[in-house]
Amino acid sequence: MTKLPPNPHSLTLEELFKLLETSITGLSVAEAKKRLDTYGPNELEEAPKKSPLKLFLAQFANVLIFILLIAASISFLVGDEIEAVVILLIVLACGVLGFIQEWKADKALAALKEMAAPEAIVIREGKHLKIPAREVVPGDILVLAAGDKVAADVRLVESINLKIDEAPFTGESVPVSKDASLVLPPETPLPDRRNMAFAGTTVINGRGLGLVVATGKATEFGKIAHMLKGVEEEKTPLEKRLAVIGRWLGVLSLIVAAVAAAFGIMRGHSWLEMFLWGVSLAVAAVPESLPAVVTAALAIGVSRMAKRRAIVKRLPAVETLGSTTVICTDKTGTLTKNEMTVKKIWAGDKLFEITGTGYETKGQILYKGKPVDIFHHPDLYHTLLVGLLCNDARLEDGKFIGDPTEIALLVAGLKAGLNPEAFERVAEVPFDSDRKRMSVVVREKANGRYLILTKGSLESLLGISSHYQKDDKIFPLNAQEKQKIAQMTDAMADEALRVMAFAFREVESVPSENEIERDLIFCGLQGMIDPPRPEVREAVKKCHEAGIRVIMITGDHAKTALTIGYDLGIVPEKRPAFALTARELENLSDHELKEKLKKVSVFARVSPAHKLRLVKLLKEDGHIVAMTGDGVNDAPALKAADIGIAMGITGTQVAKEASDIILADDNFATIVAAVEEGRTIFDNIKKYMLFLLSFNLSEILVLIAGFLKGLALPLTAIHILWINLVTNGPPALALGVDPPAPDLMKRPPRPPQEGVFTRRLVALIGAFSVLIAFFLLPVFVYGFSASQSVIFSQTVLFTGFVFMAVAVAYVSRSEYLNIWRYNPLANKWLNLSVLFMVASQIMIVQCPFFNKYLHTVPISEKWWFILAALALFYIFPAEILKSLISRFFR
Length: 890
Hints:
Radius of gyration: 34 Å
Family: Belongs to the cation transport ATPase (P-type) (TC 3.A.3) family. Type IIA subfamily.
Organism: Thermodesulfatator indicus (strain DSM 15286 / JCM 11887 / CIR29812)
Strand content: 15-25%
Distance between the termini: 68 Å
Subcellular location: Cell membrane
Number of helices: 31
Domain Cation-transporting P-type ATPase N-terminal: 7-80
Transmembrane segments: 55-78, 84-100, 248-268, 274-300, 688-708, 720-741, 761-784, 790-811, 832-851, 863-881
Largest sheet: 11 strands, mixed
CATH class of the largest domain: Mainly Alpha
CATH architecture of the largest domain: Up-down Bundle
């Protein structure tokens, strides 16, 4: 086993490479796998997970269940062994069902954590590989870039303007400049180890390479985490609210059950029978499966989101999704395909065209339809050369890796026949969103000359350029020429082209960083297109139907953004009044901007600071805002938004950490799919509550009404527990995974302050429970008068409840639409659960073996028909009540 080096900051790189038996080209894939087995995964120890046995036993950690077990034990002691055994078996079945629900929920959540796990880029066998961060091993070469979260402790091998935020680690608020060339004394304190980068910190600027010297719990962060105890996972706000509701229902049910039991004792029933009956009634009334069903509904729904390429990092985000009123989205890669292709180049007053699409390097440079030799056009040559070399994209194993804009520029240079290997990069000033440009210094290997190459937005480059090139001559850059360049930029932007500007300067030696971006020679523009994704137009339309506004916030040119916005239906018509630029934003007060926000749907040339301002103003206006982002500087806006959405492909690790949801495909349509799933999950929880509570309350109403009318005991304790098992289990779970309602994305967003128990839902629960009781109480009375047998009338009522549960389940599939406006059989799991309920009821009623244990008797075909018809007929008044309630509670 290769030993981890102590004090790596005090060793030379040669010593470290030797100790860790690796090199700058990285480990072999086989050696990395071997080391993963040796050192273990690069992750911190998690708190011990609850064992299946503990999870199963936890199902019985309920006061009512505990009392029921005591009651069953007393029944056994007084000689009623059959009743005791049946009660224990039903309680055990409820426990198994609850265990399955929680086990599935835990498994789904574990899978989600795996999907949302961070990634790292390492060099192995000389190739850049993107791998899960947990697979990084000592001896790996870690690639660091702005926005990345450092995956392990590394000794820096290379650092170019590298600055790292170590605030979470050292408390230092200012990013630390790193220097790979340093060798420090062993006693150097952690905050001063400038030749190291530590796991859990964030790259703010520049880039670098690091030799991994510690992973997992051996990292400095891991040593700190090892001292801390595991923190119990927080419940979601929804689960907390429902837990409170469950407790209130529990208290209410116990009071009702106690009063009912007291009535029974006064009327001559034995205290043991009434005690058992009262506890059973309380157990049936309290939706003890509620937390498990909610967790399962959330986890299963979130798993469905993952299949639709939206990875939810935090379950509370699901609740907020249904309330989203505004989606602020980036353009490139989210609304568009992210397959940039340079189509036009303007250099030296000439407009050139480039053939070919996508990332294919086949194509020609044309002027007036004829191919040109770029070496006969120095301004064209320099424009393409800057795009080729002032660029972090690369071609590796026939595949382009990097930012799509940079890949497009690289492809354009390769189409022109330029060779990037003929130059060597010797210095750089990385791109940042405030400067809106990037610069490099390169040395031409053939003749040793140095060139400064800069690319960026037109506004950014004109401010640092003093001359421009036309053919092979250099002229002063005056106001007239700047206006001509701006007009050409606008003309290209009108064609929905993204325009970038390019400048250069030849120097005798490598200048200091402060001297690089000054007195440059403007050489040309490149216009590229990124076509809209075909599925986005429909997604935007769906948003508008759902009452969700879409706002495009992009760094692109206003006219380009407006063209795309018009094409996708984000703006209703092609008018400049619908776009605001960064400069205009800065001249508006918050009040003025709030007014503009009501009409403007496209914001162009904006920085991340503007994104943050827009989010805050929208929230102040009462909106629930979803915001997309991918860069380091997007993190504040992502955190400030109600739902932060990071790009999974182009997004930096910082953006992913700050977000609630990660889009695995960077596609706007996936955001809309996630909103739909979020609404579906919340809708399904309400369906479950409508079904369960209206049905459980109807049981109490029937039983209490029976007592008040002086009737015999309508149901025994075993009947109540059986109904609880078959109705609170399979059908409730099936409603938790119900398909989306047809009108789901045509409703306005749910108010964020609105809980599960809306006035409409409470009214429906009350109406349905009374209606069920109204239908079933006469069944018991008629059954008794027809047979003069208590056990027969109990069996009829018992069966009537199960049949009624079927009708209530189908009616509960929508609290908005009548049953004839949606396909009632669309939920296959509900159909299967109904078959299970009916089949099991037939079995326990008609089979003599079960009659003895479940206190039932066989009933005739006539009664089966009456009960089925009654349940079917219940649907019509229930749907009429639904329509009336919908009119009063919209």
